[in-house]
Amino acid sequence: MTVKVPQNGSPLVRELFRTINEQGLNFEDLCQRAGVYGQTVRRWRKRTPKLDNFEAVLNTMGLELMILPKVKE
User: Fold this and answer.
1) What pLDDT is stored for residue 57 in this prediction?
2) In the predicted model, what is the mean pLDDT of the chain?
3) What is the DSSP string of 34-72?
4) Which of 41, 2, 38 is nearest to 21 (CA)?
5) Which residues of 32-59 are buried (b: 16+ CB within 10 A; e: fewer)?
6) What is the mean pLDDT of residues 27-31?
7) What is the secondary structure of 10-27 as a DSSP string?
8) CA-CA distance, 53 to 30, in Å (whole number)?
9) Contact yes or no for 46/6 (Cβ under 8 A)
10) Alpha carbon distance, N-terminus to C-terminus of the chain
11) Residues 44 and 10 sit within 8 Å (Cβ to Cβ)
């Protein structure tokens, strides 16, 4: 089952949802393993996620959030 990628949400949330779909992850199972309610993650389509919850989901997927220097154009 795929999750709908928000068109107007945060770029981080859009990428997270795309990655969930690309990896073919079960959304409810992922949220449960991360310790974050599925409804909370669904609300990220319209709201900014709390950093600790966002990182928990990423870490459960084997990913991490990093700060990088901005690329000069």
Assistant:
1) 97
2) 93
3) HT--HHHHHHTTTSPPPHHHHHHHHHHTT------PPPP
4) 2
5) eebebeeeebbebbeeebeeebbebbbe
6) 95
7) -HHHHHHHHHHHHTT--H
8) 12
9) yes
10) 38
11) yes
Confidence tier at 1 by pLDDT (50, 70, 90): low
Residues whose CB falls within 8 Å of the CB of residue 6, separated by 6 or more in sequence, listed in order: 13, 14, 17, 44, 45, 46
Q: What does pTM read for this prediction?
A: 0.88
Cβ atoms 5, 21 nearer than 8 A: yes
| Token code pair at residue 2 | 């795929």
Q: CB atoms < 10 A from the CB of 1, how many?
A: 8
Delimit the domains of the chain by residue range.
11-60
Yes or no: say if 13 and 3 are a contact pair by the CB < 8 Å rule. Answer: no
The candidate with the shortest Cα–Cα distance to 13, out of 68, 65, 54, 69, is 54
